Amino acid sequence: MDVFNYHLQLKISKGALTPMWDRLREALFPWYEQIQQEGLSSAVLHGDETGWRVAGKTHWLWCFSNHRLTYYLINRSRGEPALRKFFVEEFKGTLISDF
């Protein structure tokens, strides 16, 4: 809020931010899903995860990428449950990882 209120000289309350984030999610979510679909249909993907704190608890930031796209997913799981969220269909390409 400080950025909006000071730097941009917009007076925005905490309560005003929630509907703004909801509208932004609605606008961007189809694009996020499109990136996932492009990743699933690509010939090669690199996959990796790293620890990510959410409200003081360890989650995992997953990254799937190739030369054209990068897709991020934050999940409580470091294993199969997170992978099933990304790989919603059979992946016929080559997955490159460090494990």
User: Main β-sheet: number of strands, strand sense, barrel status?
Assistant: 4 strands, mixed
State the low-pLDDT regions, or none.
none
Indicate the proportion of strand residues: 25-35%
Separation, N- and C-terminal Cα atoms: 41 Å
Secondary structure: number of strands: 4
Report Rg.
17 Å
The tally of structural domains comes to 1
Strand arrangement, major sheet = 3-2-1-4
Secondary structural class? alpha+beta
The percent of residues in helical segments reads 40-55%
Can you write the helix and strand succession as a string? HHEEEHE
Oligomer: single chain
The residue-averaged pLDDT reads 92
Shape: elongated
Contiguous helical run count: 3
Walk me through this protein's architecture.
The chain is α+β, with helices and mostly antiparallel strands. It has one domain (2-96). Helices cover 40% and strands 29% of the residues. The chain is built from three helices and four strands. Strands 3-2-1-4 form a four-stranded mixed β-sheet. A hairpin with a 4-residue loop joins strand 2 (57-65) and strand 3. The protein starts with a helix and ends with a strand.
